[in-house]
Structure formats: C-alpha cells, structure tokens
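A further point concerns the way the authors explain their paired sequence and structure data. Since the whole study asks how a given chain folds, the encoding of that fold should be made plain. A single example would do more here than another paragraph of explanation. An entry of this sort, consisting of the sequence and the corresponding backbone structure tokens, reads as follows:

_____
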Amino acid sequence: MNIDSTVDQRRVREYWDGKPCDSDLSDKTRLSREYFLDIERQRYALQPHILDVLSKIDWRGKRVLEIGSGLGTDARIIIGKGGDYTGINVDQASTEATAQALRAFSLPGRVLQRDATCLDFPDGAFDVVYSFGVLHHIPEVEKAVAEIRRVLKPGGDLFLMLYNRSSINYKVEIMLLRKLGLRMLSLPGAIALLARMGFPRHKLERHRELAAQLGTMKDDEWLSRNTDGPDNPHSKVYDAAQATALLSAFRILENEVHFFDHRHWGLPGRLLPERVRRALGRRWGWHRIVHAVKN
C-alpha cells in the first residue's frame, strides 16, 4: 500500500468514527432501543428498496459477512431472518454501535473492527457478503473486492450498493446545481434563506468555509465533499459498465438502480407521489444495487 492510500484510508476511518452512518437521524437517547428503532423507521421509510434487497435471499442458516454495518439496522433484519451474522467496520464507533444494537435486542452475532482490504477470515468462510453503501468509500476498493471474493464460498452471493454515476443526484444535483449554489453562499443572507428552506445550516457554512480555503476543487474531491457531508474524504460513483468492471471476477445477476431522494428538491419533491419517486429512482436513482455470484 502506498503512502497516499494509507493516508486516505486513515482519513476514511477517522471520518466515520466521528459520525457513523445514520447516527444523526434520531434525537432519542443515543444507542438506546428507542434510538435504534427510530433510525430503523426513518431508514426504511425513506429507502424501502433496502427491504426489497434484503428479501431477495433466504438468510436462514447462511454464514453472512456484512461489510460496513453502521448502526446495525440491516444486521438486525438479517439476524432476525436466521442469518449467522458477522459484521465489520473500519472504525471503532460503528463497530461499538452495532454491537450495542445487538445487545439491546438480545440478538446473536459478532461485530469486529476490520479493514475490508485485508480480512482475516479463511477462504470460503461465508455464504453471503452484504455491503450497502460502503465500497465506494474505500480508496483501494479493488483490494476489498478481491478479499470479498476470497472469503466467499464458490457460488456464494454478493449484494452491494454503490453510488450511481448515471443518476439525477450525480449528474444534476452534485455536478451542476450544487456548483451553481456554491457561488450563492457568499451572498449576504443566502445561507439564512437556504436554511429556512430546509437545508442544514452547518453544512452550508462548512461548504462556504471550504470553498474559501480550497478554491476550485477537482471533480473527485467535489464529489466526495457532496455525498456524505462536506468533510467526507472519499466517495466514487459507478455506472453500469464501471460496476461490472469492478466485479469482473463475479457473475452478475442484477445491476439495477433505485432511490430518488425527494428531500433534495424541497416542496416540489415532497409533493411528488410515491409512485413517481419510485419510477424516478428505478430510472435515475442514486443507489446502484448489484447482485453477483462467485464463479
């Protein structure tokens, strides 16, 4: 591993250690049963396609590895459906949060702090590897994919969510509208106005601060800072061909997209009927869902 990738991976670990995925969704007592249930409700209400993905396999008796368990929300579904569960996270905070979630609901399973690019599991140790929204944050993602293939048994299933390059979120919001919007942030009263419209004030202020510090950003850095927060150190996006290339050592069964995030569009987005949101997601969604099998 070269120095740059080591630094990048350290930054990724430190970032998610400070804000495990979905941890800001609830104001209930942190890591309580009520906290986990509140996050579960919000996660699946906004992204019901996750439950659709989880329903595609019979988890009973399957040895499951989840890469990037976050707060253990999907883990509880997998275990509840009979999966023999192991979850890993690169950061300590997510690892501890998932472990606490399993304790809070008296569920079996083990949760470990591990780097997906160098797993310490035997070859063929798992029947299923599941990773929702994690691989696109790994700087040396090809190493992670090679490790996934190694620890999967022959014929084992891989379920991934990757950010979709051919999405409204990437093509329109991130690479067009947000670049235009950044110029507005320096105008008097702009942040206050946008905050009243529902945009998070602290994120707007941080974007303005970073623009002043860094000037014009390259597209890769701009993408990273406009996916999971302005200080997010690394994200990538994949179209269908790029996802297929990344998983070239697997046989791909499904490569489809879901999830139009209507929250980004203010009142017009809230007024869209659910069936329209789903249709937009299936055509230009932000989440690229891939189901592949180890040859």
